[in-house]
Amino acid sequence: MTLNAADDRFRTLILQALPPEVLRPAEARYLEEPRGRWAGNAGLIAAPRSTDEVAALVRLAAQHKVAIVPYGGGTGLVGGQIAPDGPAPLLLSLERMTAIRAVYPEENVMVAEAGAILADVQAAAAGADRLFPLSLAAEGTARIGGNLATNAGGTGVLRYGNARDLCLGLEAVLPDGTVWHGLSRLRKDNTGYDLRNLLIGSEGTLGVITAAALKLWPLPRATGTALMAVASPQAALKLLAMARDMLGDGVSAFELMHRQGFEFLTETLPDVRQPFAEPPEWTVLIDLGLPARQSASGALEELFGAALEAGLVDDGLIAQSEAQAAEFWSVREHIPEANRRIGSVSSHDISVPLSAIPEFIERGDAIIAGLGAFRINCFGHVGDGNLHYNVFPAPGRTRQDHVEQRDDIKRAVHDLVHELGGSVSAEHGIGRLKVGDLQRYGDPVKLAAMRAIKDALDPLGIMNPGAVLPARG
Amino acid sequence: MTLNAADDRFRTLILQALPPEVLRPAEARYLEEPRGRWAGNAGLIAAPRSTDEVAALVRLAAQHKVAIVPYGGGTGLVGGQIAPDGPAPLLLSLERMTAIRAVYPEENVMVAEAGAILADVQAAAAGADRLFPLSLAAEGTARIGGNLATNAGGTGVLRYGNARDLCLGLEAVLPDGTVWHGLSRLRKDNTGYDLRNLLIGSEGTLGVITAAALKLWPLPRATGTALMAVASPQAALKLLAMARDMLGDGVSAFELMHRQGFEFLTETLPDVRQPFAEPPEWTVLIDLGLPARQSASGALEELFGAALEAGLVDDGLIAQSEAQAAEFWSVREHIPEANRRIGSVSSHDISVPLSAIPEFIERGDAIIAGLGAFRINCFGHVGDGNLHYNVFPAPGRTRQDHVEQRDDIKRAVHDLVHELGGSVSAEHGIGRLKVGDLQRYGDPVKLAAMRAIKDALDPLGIMNPGAVLPARG
Question: Scanning every residue of chain A, which has its alpha carbon at the shortest distance from the alpha carbon of B152?
């Protein structure tokens, strides 16, 4: 199936069907991505203002076999939003569909359009005395439609789940331009196949999400934050089990950080205030969110005491104010920026079964040491089994010095992950970066089923071709 | 596509490929279902002992275009396990695949084969000091594969979610006889389309689930149960909001019961001990499950006090022992049996948005009153918006007296549910009972996508034909 470029002729067809404001000038920002790995390619850029306009554009694209690249906040880390090759596509940005259509505080539901920025969704929930718990570094730029299309993770997954767990219903334009009106506010609905979860995580290859019904939660009434120095990743897992045993789902975040991250902060972002005079080898950042009748700092003290007695921790800081809690989180949140400034040779967003984490870290470190002199910054959402395991050059060297080793490092880490029953893309998705990894490590029966589904719902192959699955020739 | 019967010739083919023990004598139990509505039809009954044997049977069925009806515990309420017509199918029972393959307490994960009885799965979790929270009336007979295939609900949904929310991974035989090895123990895995959730809830029409990786939870350390008399369904919803605000996810069940249910118990099951001398018009049954450091009965007393002050409740009983808690639950759990003994004219497993519950009950009651003299037993999982809204004959009459009104009643209730943005199958699924309802009320774009997916994954139409979607002619 050869696709056609979104050329002047296609532009004319769009302008016959839709007002000229739907098209946007080609700005560089649409064709760049955060890793700086690809330069995008777009014949036309459209920013429709309504679901009807999205549907009209998709129908035209289907009629004329023009590829569509759906575009949210552009913050994806695997190139799902960037088409580097093939006939120039229509880039379809949801940036004008930003309405919070409705909030139902008594149902703990909100309906938001796909272009709403994640931070605005959070704020709209807070304005109704509710929590929308999806939280990630790019939340000031990322849009909820993209978060859903990529099944985003972040720091709230331990307690609240991934993006798919936060969604009750979708409105979406399918590849033939029809509109699925699936904005259900229902907690239970067993009427047919789970189209919602099929679209979530399909990275724009099966349709364009235009709006979503999102789950909200009561705001936790008592919150607390602590940093605890743990002896090892194994001790971190035991501390987590202890915390959940004592506090149940009150544990709302549990992040592991290696000393390397603190050292990168010292090196590249000296203004970020560091809580420990001497950073421990392994630190966990714990957030609690408890209902009204409990004391979060009391609970953290009790946890620290029990963990000290069990030999799991040897130092700890409990935030005494919201400002101090923000300071603790600031350390965690600046680590990705410090990483960027150092410049990684190879970054890995992996997950393994929880009990395999210590083995993964131990064997991973040995494998990397065998490949040369590198620094490893391992951090992430340890309660979800999700680590960002990033490999950096030794001091005085740069990533450019290791370009030729990059694929070997990536392969070695991913082989280990696969051997341990893990995933080579825990939360970022496949995009274009990991299409080859998915073909290599994915279950062949699942891959065949994915291809059959893709061909059934998008027989022309116009939706984000080359993302998730290889483009058809 | 005409299918062939599972006849003697097909039997011979099976016996050439597999040991004779795989086949089972035709027993009546396989061809009956709890509603007594259909008589099943099966050419052959097979009970494979391994995933490989399941795959071999499915491959044979695909080669010879023989329909397969996957069979779990046989407890489904919508006829998904019963093929009343068409060429006699191969009934494929998972009853011999009952192993708990592994328990990983430190990961809160268990891997169970599809034929494991739900109560055995719960017991295996408890044996590892963990909770598997799926809980429903048929748990002593239902099998976990069927629970997943139908995305079962039950009383734990409010806190823990539906069956799909309790599953991390699947092993399944697809309609071409290939095996998807997807028994992931990962909490985060963004590698391609969500085949797991597509199979969950597809009621055996897209493949046969053979095993599942299930999520476990720490056992709640402090549990408590109470009955509270509420003024109205609206007051019940306010009480729920208050409870969640005070106790967060400590609220693990919240069931609404109308007085009619208590009266049916008095009439048909007088041995069931009733806690109230005079049953209130509306009662809620509340279960708490709290971590170690809290007192559940203290929390229930506090909740009752606050609710009394707010005018939401006017009577209440807090269980003083586990025996008394079991007594409270026994009332709730015997209501379906009392209903069966009375004999409903029409039963409805519906859900509506939470805030629409009072309107649904008020308008529903008025509509039924307009259709004749009936008794309504409305009860269910009000925190999920899921009500069992069942219509019974007046005293002295029987369901047979109203056979001709049955479709009108059902239609009127379902029309109202649809108008309020609800679902005509909240937790039981579509099966064969509600295929027409789904065609009538379902979104046409979703239906078209479902058909495309069905045809793509099961082009011969052998998997449970006539369930969920109409069988192809």
Answer: A190
Position A280 scores a pLDDT of: 97
A222 and chain B: CB distance < 8 Å anywhere?
A: no
**Is the model's pLDDT at B449 over the cut of 90?**
yes
Q: Is the pLDDT of residue A293 over 80?
A: no
pLDDT of res. A1: 62
From the number of C-beta atoms within 10 Å of its C-beta (0-12, 13-18, 19+), residue B383 rates as buried
The encoded tokens of residue A301 equal 């003290």
| Alpha-carbon gap, residue B359 to B365, rounded angstroms | 10
Closest CA of chain B from A409, distance in Å: 20
Please name the member of B218, B245, B468 whose beta carbon is closest to the beta carbon of A291: B245
Residues B325 and B391 occupy one common structural domain: no
Mean of the per-residue pLDDT values for chain B? 96
A51 inside domain:
no
**DSSP readout, B63-118?**
HTTB-EEEESSS--SSSTT---SSSPPEEEE-TT---EEEEEGGGTEEEEETTSBH
Closest of B332, B409, B420, B430 to residue A189, by C-alpha: B430
Instruction: Tell whether B337 is within 8 A of chain A (Cβ).
Output: no
Alpha-carbon distances of A459 from A451, A465, B440, B449, rounded to whole Å: 10, 11, 27, 12
Domains: count for chain B: 4
B254: Cβ contacts below 8 Å, ≥ 6 apart: B158, B240, B243, B284, B285, B286, B287, B381, B382, B383
Q: What is the pLDDT of residue A472?
A: 81
Contacts of B394 (CB under 8 A, 6+ apart): B373, B374, B375
Contact list in B for residue A452 (CB cut-off 8 A) is 456-457
ipTM over cut 0.90: yes
User: B156 lies in which domain range?
Assistant: 100-218
Chain B residue with the nearest C-alpha to that of A130: B245
- CATH number for the domain harbouring residue A214: 3.30.465.10
Chain B interface includes A306 (CB < 8 A): no
Rounded CA-CA distance A411/B123 in Å is: 42
* B contacts of A248 (beta carbons < 8 Å): 218, 220, 249-250, 290-291
- Asked if residue B75 and residue B117 are part of one domain, the reply reads no
Quick: pLDDT tens for B416-430.
999 999 999 999 999
The reply to whether B251 and B296 lie within a common domain is yes
What is the spatial distance between Cα B464 and Cα B432, in angstroms, rounded to a whole number? Answer: 10
Q: Are A391 and A342 in contact (CB under 8 A)?
A: no
Nearest to A376 by CA among A363, A392, A397: A392
Three-state SS at A113: strand
Return d(Cα B22, Cα B70) in angstroms, integer. 14
